[in-house]
TrEMBL record:
Name of the protein in its database record: Malate/lactate/ureidoglycolate dehydrogenase, LDH2 family
Sorted UniProt keywords: Oxidoreductase
Keyword Ribonucleoprotein in annotation: no
Organism: Bradyrhizobium lablabi
Pfam family, one: Ldh_2
Keyword Chloroplast among UniProt keywords: no
InterPro entries named in the record: Mal/L-sulf/L-lact_DH-like_ah, Mal/L-sulf/L-lact_DH-like_NADP, Mal/L-sulfo/L-lacto_DH-like_sf, Malate/L-lactate_DH-like
Family indicated by similarity: Belongs to the LDH2/MDH2 oxidoreductase family.
Single GO term (MF): oxidoreductase activity
Length: 354
């Protein structure tokens, strides 16, 4: 069965209708649906509509608060902590990004943590929000399930704990880095399972240290940290530091307190995220900075290539090209995912996606 192709507007409308049906206010459903569809548009397939069945299931089980009182619990000139009241993470992080941007207009740099948030989709969505104000965005998060042991250990005490950075450019596209601190994000593992594909060796190992390539057996194994078997202590250390910044600093879950939201639909996860906005104008002329970024991008892109390498990419370039392609041609939905979305539609009494 081939993939189904849908437009961005149809995908957003479908997600919004489903979320409204399970209790989200219309505006909140529109905000979440827009961000989820945007994830699929840029190729972050593990964080877009593929999450809808899980979100709907958790909402029905009481795992999400559909009418949260998202509020500031600590507020200073350049910092804040938001309590998401167990609302959907997309709503919490959009609010956090807006707060950081507003504060950075005055202070130059602002940092906002979240507590009692939830899974919010790809990190790049939020790191990119300050770009529109000529600001650099940084994003950190504690993953929503522990799949990573400490280096040399077996206890799952860490997650994929992603980091993202978005840096404005002039004539070139912004630099947008979005990466997990594991070799592969767990969302990519789930996407492989939905597509019936195998994982490359080096993504996961079993508890005996053997390569695990069947994504449907992911619960039996562990993700490898950045650096893999040779230098994974670097990825392990980075995951720990990011977790402390995004979770512990803001009073959110970290380590043994992290709830596996893949298998627990009703517990409050107390997910932690952090976003920083850096106002380029506080450091010098914005136009000069952007021109310097353009120069670096062109130097890297045009630098001498190794044999067999056709092209040197910069962070964010592939996502931008995917966005253009899918805007023109539509967004592909795998058959297994479509079956799950059809089931959601039938259960909620709404029109199917395709």
């Amino acid at each position: 069965m081939p993939e189904t192709i849908v437009t961005l507007s149809r995908l957003k409308a479908f997600i919004q209708e489903a979320l409204t049906k399970v209790g989200l206010p219309e505006q909140d459903a529109s905000t979440v649906a827009g961000l989820m569809a945007e994830a699929d548009l840029q190729g972050s397939d593990g964080h877009g509509v593929t999450r809808l069945p899980q979100y709907v299931r958790r909402i029905k089980a009481g795992g999400f608060n559909v009418r949260p009182n998202i509020r500031v619990v600590h507020d200073h000139l350049s910092t804040a902590v938001l309590n998401g009241d167990n609302g959907m993470g997309h709503l919490v992080m959009k609010r956090a990004a807006e707060m950081a941007i507003e504060k950075a207009r005055t202070t130059g740099i602002a940092w906002v943590n979240s507590q009692f948030s939830n899974h919010a989709g790809p990190a790049s969505l939020y790191a990119s929000m300050p770009l529109a104000r000529d600001m650099i965005g940084l994003y950190f998060a504690v993953g929503n399930a522990n799949h990573l042991p400490p280096w040399g250990g077996l206890d799952m005490l860490l997650s994929t704990n992603p980091i993202a950075a978005a840096i404005p450019a002039g004539d070139e596209k912004p630099i947008v880095l979005d990466m997990a601190t594991t070799v592969a994000a767990y969302g990519k593992v789930k996407t492989k399972a939905l597509r019936g594909e195998t994982m490359p060796e080096g993504w996961m190992i079993d508890r005996a240290g053997k390569p695990l390539t069947d994504p449907k057996r992911a619960d039996e194994g562990m993700l490898l940290p950045l650096g893999g078997m040779e230098a994974g202590y670097k990825g392990y250390g980075l995951a720990m530091v990011i977790g402390l910044l995004a979770g512990t600093l803001g009073g959110a879950a970290m380590g043994r307190d992290v709830i596996d939201f893949n298998h627990d639909d009703d517990s409050v996860t107390n997910t932690g995220q952090a976003i920083a906005a850096i106002n380029v104008a506080a450091f010098g002329d914005v136009a000069v900075f952007k021109k310097s970024v353009d120069t670096l991008v062109r130097d890297i892109r045009n630098s001498e290539r190794m044999p067999g390498v056709d092209r040197i990419l910069v962070p964010g370039e592939r996502s931008f090209e995917t966005r253009v392609k899918r805007t023109q041609n539509g967004i592909p939905v795998a058959p297994a995912l479509m079956r799950g979305l059809d089931q959601v539609a039938d259960d909620l009494g709404i029109a199917r996606l395709a």
